[in-house]
TrEMBL record:
Main location: membrane
Taxonomy of the source species: Eukaryota, Viridiplantae, Streptophyta, Embryophyta, Tracheophyta
Homology family: Belongs to the MIP/aquaporin (TC 1.A.8) family. TIP (TC 1.A.8.10) subfamily.
Localization (cell): Membrane
InterPro entries named in the record: Aquaporin-like (IPR023271), Aquaporin_transptr (IPR034294), MIP (IPR000425), MIP_CS (IPR022357)
Organism: Salix purpurea (Purple osier willow)
UniProt keyword terms in alphabetical order: Membrane, Repeat, Transmembrane, Transmembrane helix, Transport
One cellular component (GO) term of this entry: membrane
Protein's name in the database: AQUAPORIN TIP5-1-RELATED
Length: 255
């Protein structure tokens, strides 16, 4: 039974609709990473000491808001607008996507990130592709914990924005996701880099050839994302909870 089930899941992952989803993930992730890494390169180009200049942090945070909101919006109808391996991992853990599909999502996202960084490296001749790094005073465990908490907030927002049980949020949902990402960058950028996205950290590390503390940007985000998805689906808004109960809670908070 297991081989048959695995074969059936794989076949579901290579349908025309699935292939369109992978392409959508590639395109949206490419432009997200292009904007985030490119904004960091631009701030270093324009500012003499970008690492110590608060305005460079604001530049990257704003780029995160605009880029992630747009990337999620343009891919939402085709792939769900994950744009992040951590989001895909949470969806797989929660049972929203099967494992083969999640793996293809990861391949699309990681490949897009690497291609975006290659494009930046080639077109901005002589410019260094920045990588995510933790502050000298922080430990890898502390940085991983920080990335996990930020990714929890991001993925929890993704679940809330995409919840079909809520009224249609239109473009507000992707904007909420982008705003959460930007706020997290402002809060923790100087300490862990504010990645929240393993693909973004991976692509820049591959092109720069620097993999120091790379585990920080995988372990923390994947755990934080999984906890967020499970908590949202099974505790805060479980499927079996009647709409009237949730409505009563919401009305009570409003009062």
């Amino acid at each position: 039974m297991a081989p048959t089930s695995l074969s059936a899941r794989f076949q579901q992952s290579v349908t025309p609709a699935s292939l369109r989803a992978y392409l959508a993930e590639f395109i949206s992730t490419f432009f997200y990473v292009f904007a985030v890494v490119g904004s960091a390169m631009a701030s270093r180009k324009l500012l003499p000491d970008a690492a110590a200049d608060p305005s460079s942090l604001v530049i990257v945070a704003i780029a995160n808001v605009f880029a992630l909101s747009s990337a999620v919006y343009i891919a939402a109808s085709a792939s769900g607008g994950h744009v992040n391996p951590a989001v895909t991992f949470a969806m797989a853990v929660s049972g929203h996507v099967n494992v083969p599909t999640a793996l293809f999502y990861w391949i699309s996202q990681l490949l897009a990130s690497v291609m975006a960084c290659i494009f930046l490296k080639v077109t901005t001749v002589g410019q260094h592709v920045p990588t995510f790094a933790i502050a000298e005073e922080m430990t890898g465990f502390g940085a991983s914990l920080l990335e996990g908490v930020m990714t929890f907030g991001l993925v929890y927002t993704v679940y809330a924005a995409a919840d079909p049980r809520r009224s249609s949020l239109g473009a507000i949902g992707p904007l909420a996701v982008g705003l959460m990402a930007g706020a997290n960058v402002l809060a923790a950028g100087p300490f862990s880099g504010g990645s929240m996205n393993p693909a973004c950290a991976f692509g820049s590390a591959v092109i720069a050839g620097k993999f120091k503390n790379q585990a920080v940007y995988w372990v923390g985000p994947l755990i934080g994302a999984s906890v967020a998805g499970l908590l949202y689906d099974n505790v805060v808004f479980p499927p079996q909870a009647p709409d009237s109960a949730r409505r009563g809670v919401s009305e009570g908070v409003g009062v």
